[in-house]
Specification:
The chain is α/β, with parallel strands linked by helices. It has one domain: Vaccinia Virus protein VP39 (Rossmann fold, 3-Layer(aba) Sandwich), CATH 3.40.50. Helices cover 27% and strands 28% of the residues. The chain has an eight-stranded mixed beta sheet with strand order 5-4-3-6-7-9-8-10. Strands 1-2 form a two-stranded antiparallel ribbon. The two termini are 24 Å apart.
Length: 234
């Protein structure tokens, strides 16, 4: 059985359409959960984002939405096996059919963002990775409806897509409040951006973050960011 170990929880991912990766590790560590009480994880996969946020906020309750049945089943097991099982629940459904007006003060997602016409031959992987399974406009529209007036929406996406996301979010009353540019390696190009949106318009904060140094070792910043999560010291 494929198991990914964190310091305070483990993830079964043998049948999951989307395995745990660096994107999820970064988003879960960066997402601001301070003073949040109700969270929603869209496209939960293994449930890693819900579990990471639950670890750093002992008052938040999370609903995790996962369309793929096998992934939802593993997510359920991962929640049940964790010390926060009483605060975590899984919904095996399409987020576009989900209705919970103004219920969540934190929404997190590592959304399917591939937009090429060539889908993965594995239909479950295609659903987890390709935007056609969760179109951006409909996705953002529903986020705007379930988010509280003071809530925040956090995502990680390819750097080249951030303008489209920000424009779409703006169309639904969600303002960009934080942008973190992620460099895979020192001296390289920006690979990902972590974006935070809110219905309340405030001064935009901008940061940059480097995962690996010029020698291809993890940077001290990455080690510090993930120190409370990685099972083994980096």
């Amino acid at each position: 059985m494929s198991i990914f170990k964190f310091k305070e929880f483990e993830l079964i991912q043998a049948e999951n359409a989307m395995k745990v990766g660096t994107d999820a590790m970064l988003l879960g560590a960066f997402a601001n959960a301070t003073n949040r009480r109700t969270g929603l994880d869209v496209g939960a996969g293994t449930g890693v984002l819900s579990l990471m946020v639950a670890q750093k906020n002992d008052a938040i309750s999370f609903d995790a939405i996962e369309l793929d049945q096998k992934s939802a089943e593993e997510c359920t097991l991962n929640f049940e096996n964790s010390k926060w099982s009483d605060r975590l629940s899984v919904l095996n459904m399409n987020f576009l059919d989900f209705e919970a007006p103004g219920c969540y003060d934190l929404v997190v997602s590592n959304p399917p963002y591939y937009q090429s016409t060539r889908l993965n031959r594995d239909p479950r992987k295609a659903m987890a990775r390709h935007e056609s399974s969760l179109p951006m406009v409909e996705f953002v529209k529903n986020v705007s409806q379930v988010l509280t007036s003071e809530g925040e929406f956090w995502i990680i996406i390819p750097a080249e897509d951030h303008k489209n996301w920000t424009k779409t979010c703006s169309n639904f009353g969600l303002h960009l409040i934080e942008r973190n540019s992620i460099y895979g390696k020192e001296g390289g190009e920006i690979k990902r951006v972590i974006l935070a949106y809110s219905k309340t318009k405030i001064l935009l904060e901008e940061f940059s973050f480097v995962i690996r140094d010029i020698a291809n070792n993890y940077t001290e910043a990455y080690k510090e960011l993930t120190r409370e999560y990685h099972h083994n010291l980096l």
